[in-house]
Every structure is written in C-alpha cells, then in structure tokens.
C-alpha cells in the first residue's frame, strides 16, 4: 500500500490534519488506538478568547475566533452535523480584584467583554454569587465527541484508519520513502498527544504533561444557551441536563486516573455555587499535551525530512489544532511557511543532540 502521509493519532490534531490533507487530494493512513480518555475525548470543547485573572486576550484570538467558527461549521456541513455552537460565558468573579479586572476591560472597550445579556435576578434563582456578572462574547463550544466519533466512522468507511498502536521501532527509512509494515509513505506525522514525548525522535522537546479532571453532572433547569464560569470551575452544557464541570491543572500527579480529592472538592464547590440539586454521573481525567513556552510544536523534524509533528496544543486544542493543522498541511503540500513561534525548527539544536545520543 502506498500513501502520501501516515498520521499517528486521531485526536483533535490528527483529525484536522487528515481532513486538510484529504482536502488537498493527498492520501493518508491514520493509526489511532481508540481511547475514550484521550485529551480530546475528555475536553469540554470550549473556545474562549480571554484568559487569566487579568482578563487578557488569548494568543491569536483575533484570527482564531472567526477561523474556528468557519472551519467547524464547514466540517459540520460536509458531515451533515452541527459541531460548533456559540455559547457565551457568563463569568461570576469571586473577588473584588477579579471584578475590577472585568470593569477595567469594559472601560477600555475590550471587544470580548460586556455586561450580561440576561437579568442578574434570573441568575440568582440558580446560583449564589456575591459580585457582578460579565459576559464573554463570542465564545464557542465544540461537540468534541460527536466530531471525533463522526470523523472516525468516516475514516473507517474510507479504509483510512487502523485502530491499532503504531510501533515506532518498525519504521524503516528508505531513500525517497518511509516503510511501516506493508505501507510506503512520504512522511509520518506525529499527532499523538502526550505519547509523542516518549518518541525517540521528539523526546527532547520541552513537553509538559498537564493533568485535568472534570465531573459530568446532571442539573435540571439550568439554561443551556450559556456557559457559566466560577473561578476555575466552568459549567458547559453537553446535552439537555448534562453538564461538564471542570477543570484543574495538575503538574505533579501520582496517577493519570480521576482522583477522589478532585471529586470531593469539586462537589463541595458545587454545593456552595448551586441553589438547585445536582447528581454526579461520571468523573473524567486526561493529560493535556502542553509545552514549556505554551506554543505548539508544528513541522518537519530538523534532521529527518520524513518525520513531522503536530502537537503541544496544551489547553487550547480546539482552536489551535485546526489552525496549525492547516498550516502544516499547506507546508507539506506547498512548502508554505509555518508561524515561526510554532515551527518545531526553533528546537533544531535540541532535536539534533537527541538524535546524536540515540544513534550511539
Ligand atoms: C480536562 C481537560 C479539559 C480540556 N478542555 C479543553 C477545552 O475546553 N478547550 C480546548 O481547546 N482544549 C481543552 N483541553 C485540551 C485539549 O483536550 C487538548 O489540547 C487536545 O485534545 C490535544 O489533542 P491531540 O490530538 O494533540 O491529543 P490527544 O487528544 O491526546 O490525541 C492523541 C491520539 O493519539 C492516539 N495515540 C497516541 N499514541 C499512539 C500510537 N502509538 N498509536 C496509535 N494511536 C496513538 C491516542 O490514543 C489519541 O487518540 C482540555 C484537556 C483536558 C485534559
């Protein structure tokens, strides 16, 4: 079998990359061992243009917001499904300095912050909150599981997906192609999330594994047209009465599994936030493929022209993955330049020394 590209991983990165390469008329073989606890399957799918206690605009928000809306909508049209919805965030600051940060942004006429389009009185029926409420607009929510499952079925039907572990030790380099089992390809692209940090080609990249957990709760009666944010806890509507509630950022952890500590503290926070009953249905956790300088790893290996990467999406995979998948696809097909802040060539020194070490 001969293909243009082998892609390892069908999380949000591998999904978008294969989508754009197929659109360019290229052939792909995707390897993805099904894992319902992958970062992409556990993510809430929120795309939020502001961040942090100082309420700052996120990296590339001006370009990313219209782009993601268009791309997820077009993919939805292609697959006759709706993958993205606008669900603005109602933020409930928990302290005066946070409230002031929002008031400052409104004064500065920040494009994304406004007074809420819903009566405070109405919100008091559901939530306890001591300060003002603010609305971040626009914010989007991607139905990640619907998108990934739908796309997986499509790849299966086209005979483009192998539900198996890709074994890097079986890669054979030839002069003008790369051989993996019975497949000959021009390049292999690592879109395999945190597992790329164990690849001999990428081990020296400054990866950070950032664990996050979430509870899935049943809450009756809460308006599903908004997302609600209380400190680090965000309530995102999954479907009628079912809410994704999370998350946290753990850099030191004993286990990758959900922990009782998170469940207990989150349940306790929910009891103080909510005036209406809730029932916990599930508890999820996963590792975000983050990077030390919070920028993705995109492009061809500086030493191995036949190996490339699309990774390091951190906590922003839903917006960064489609953008950088498109950049990588256009780089592979047309040799277009990748944003230097994301191009993996910025680590060419580190990657070269890795290689020398494992060659010995
Ligand atoms: C709790 C939590 C909440 C989050 N919420 C959001 C959010 O609201 N918005 C947002 O933008 N981001 C969010 N994120 C971050 C987002 O999930 C990640 O940035 C993104 O999913 C990373 O996608 P990926 O495709 O790079 O990796 P992954 O989703 O990890 O996908 C990699 C895939 O590769 C497969 N794979 C790995 N190695 C192999 C191999 N050798 N052979 C075959 N298959 C392999 C894995 O099984 C997996 O399916 C959240 C993350 C967490 C943990």
Using the alpha-carbon principal axes, give the shape: elongated
- CATH architecture title of the largest domain: 2-Layer Sandwich
| Class from helix and strand fractions | alpha+beta
Strand count, sense and barrel status of the largest sheet are: 8 strands, mixed
Outline the structure in words.
This protein has helices spanning 12-23, 39-42, 61-79, 96-107, 120-124, 144-157, 260-273, 317-334, 348-359, and strands spanning 2-8, 28-31, 46-47, 50-51, 56-57, 84-86, 89-91, 113-114, 134-136, 140-142, 161-162, 171-173, 178-180, 183-190, 207-219, 227-230, 233-239, 242-246, 278-291, 297-300, 307-311. It is α+β, with helices and mostly antiparallel strands. The strands form four sheets. Strands 1, 2, 11, 12, 13, 14, 20 and 21 form an eight-stranded mixed sheet that branches. The protein has an eight-stranded mixed sheet with strand order 8-9-7-16-17-18-15-19, with helices on both faces. Flavin-adenine dinucleotide binds next to helix 1, helix 2, strand 15, strand 19 and helix 8.
Kindly list the characteristics that best describe this protein.
FAD/NAD(P)-binding domain, alpha+beta, single chain, D-Amino Acid Oxidase, Chain A, domain 2, 360 residues, 28% strand, 9 helices, 21 strands, 2 domains, eight-stranded mixed beta sheet, binds flavin-adenine dinucleotide
Q: What would a concise description of this structure say?
A:
Helices cover 31% and strands 28% of the residues. With 360 residues, the protein is α+β, with helices and mostly antiparallel strands.
């Amino acid at each position: 079998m001969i293909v243009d590209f082998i892609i390892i991983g069908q999380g949000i990165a591998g999904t978008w990359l294969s989508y754009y390469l197929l659109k360019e008329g290229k052939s792909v073989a995707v390897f993805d061992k099904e894992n319902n606890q992958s970062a992409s399957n556990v993510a809430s799918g929120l795309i939020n243009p502001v961040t942090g206690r100082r309420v700052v605009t996120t990296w590339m928000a001006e370009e990313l917001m219209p782009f993601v809306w268009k791309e997820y909508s077009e993919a939805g049209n292609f697959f006759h499904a709706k993958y993205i919805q606008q669900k603005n965030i109602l933020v409930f600051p928990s302290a005066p300095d946070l409230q002031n940060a929002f008031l400052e942004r409104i004064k500065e006429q920040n494009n994304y912050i406004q007074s809420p389009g819903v009566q405070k009185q109405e919100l008091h029926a559901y939530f306890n909150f001591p300060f003002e409420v603010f609305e971040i607009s626009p914010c989007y929510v991607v139905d990640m599981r619907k998108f990934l499952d739908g796309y997986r079925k499509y790849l299966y039907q086209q005979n483009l997906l192998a539900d198996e572990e890709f074994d890097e030790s079986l890669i054979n380099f030839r002069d003008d192609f790369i051989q993996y089992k019975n497949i000959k390809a021009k390049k292999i692209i690592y879109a395999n999330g945190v597992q790329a940090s164990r690849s001999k080609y990428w081990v020296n990249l400054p990866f950070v594994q950032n664990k996050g957990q979430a509870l899935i709760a049943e809450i009756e009666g809460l308006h599903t047209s908004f997302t609600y944010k209380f400190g680090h806890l965000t309530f995102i509507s999954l479907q009628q009465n079912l809410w994704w509630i999370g998350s946290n950022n753990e850099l030191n952890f004993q286990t990758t599994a959900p922990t009782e500590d998170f469940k207990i503290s989150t349940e306790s926070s929910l009891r103080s936030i909510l005036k209406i009953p809730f029932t916990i249905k599930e508890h999820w956790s996963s590792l975000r493929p983050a990077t030390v300088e919070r920028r993705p790893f995109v492009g061809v290996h500086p030493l191995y022209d036949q190996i490339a990467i699309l990774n390091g999406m951190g906590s922003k995979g839903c917006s960064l993955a489609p953008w950088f998948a498109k950049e990588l696809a256009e780089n592979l097909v047309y040799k277009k330049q990748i944003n230097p802040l994301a191009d993996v060539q910025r680590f060419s020194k580190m990657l070269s020394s890795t290689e020398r070490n494992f060659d010995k």
